[in-house]
């Protein structure tokens, strides 16, 4: 079985696959080259994680983990780029909020920031919307593959 962090990343990707705008162009990587053929598309990955003891005790004590998840939505539309990026953000936010698979793994989930920017030059660049989520989940100290 996979680490709960991986299960969460995969659940985010599953929830965001087959959305109206980005379709199946969903990649669980921060370094996937977003070629024109893959746009619009999403890159989904985890950033940082911190841990604290939830219960003090032996190997079976519980640990609360705080994870930052990132969704990057890319589009190369030359007209109404901001509208397209807002649509990607809206579709992702709705999918994440309504995913029972994600809910089953977590104790808390919050959208903490949204950033919109343009990358590249005017003729070959792409717009990107970046959604960052604060994810809180719990595991046993000796069982990082099972959410509690």
SSE arrangement:
Layout: H1 4-16, E1 26-27, E2 41-53, E3 62-75, H2 81-97, H3 100-105, E4 108-119, E5 126-140, E6 143-147
Parallel strand pairs: 1-2
Antiparallel strand pairs: 2-3, 3-5, 4-5, 5-6
Note down, in words, how this protein is organized.
This protein has 148 residues and is of the alpha+beta class. The chain has a single domain, classed as Alpha-Beta Plaits (2-Layer Sandwich). Helices cover 24% and strands 41% of the residues. It contains 3 helices and 6 strands; from the N terminus they run H-E-E-E-H-H-E-E-E. The protein has helices at residues 4-16, 81-97, 100-105; strands spanning 26-27, 41-53, 62-75, 108-119, 126-140, 143-147. The chain starts with a helix and ends with a strand.
Name given to the CATH homologous superfamily: Phage minor tail protein U
* Radius of gyration over all CA atoms, rounded: 17 Å
The CATH topology name reads: Alpha-Beta Plaits
Task: Tell me the number of helical segments per DSSP (H or I, 4 or more residues long).
Answer: 3
Instruction: Give the CATH architecture.
Output: 2-Layer Sandwich
Order of helices and strands: HEEEHHEEE
Low-confidence stretches: none
Please state the average pLDDT score: 91
Beta content comes to 35-45%
> What is the number of strand segments?
6
* Straight-line N-to-C gap: 15 Å
Q: SS-based structural class?
A: alpha+beta
Helix content: 10-25%
């Amino acid at each position: 079985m996979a680490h709960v962090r991986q299960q969460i990343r995969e659940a985010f990707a599953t929830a965001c696959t087959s959305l109206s705008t980005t379709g199946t162009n969903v990649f669980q990587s921060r370094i996937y080259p977003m070629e024109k053929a893959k746009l619009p598309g999403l890159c989904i990955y985890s950033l940082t994680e911190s841990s604290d003891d939830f219960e003090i005790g032996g190997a079976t004590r519980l640990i609360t983990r705080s994870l930052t998840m990132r969704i990057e939505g890319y589009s190369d539309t030359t007209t109404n780029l901001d509208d397209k990026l807002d649509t990607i953000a809206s579709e992702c936010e709705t999918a994440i909020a309504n995913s029972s698979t994600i809910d089953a793994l977590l104790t808390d989930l919050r959208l903490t920031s949204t950033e919109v920017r343009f990358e590249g030059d005017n003729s070959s660049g792409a717009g990107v919307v970046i959604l960052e989520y604060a994810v809180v989940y719990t595991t046993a100290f000796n069982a990082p593959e099972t959410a509690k």
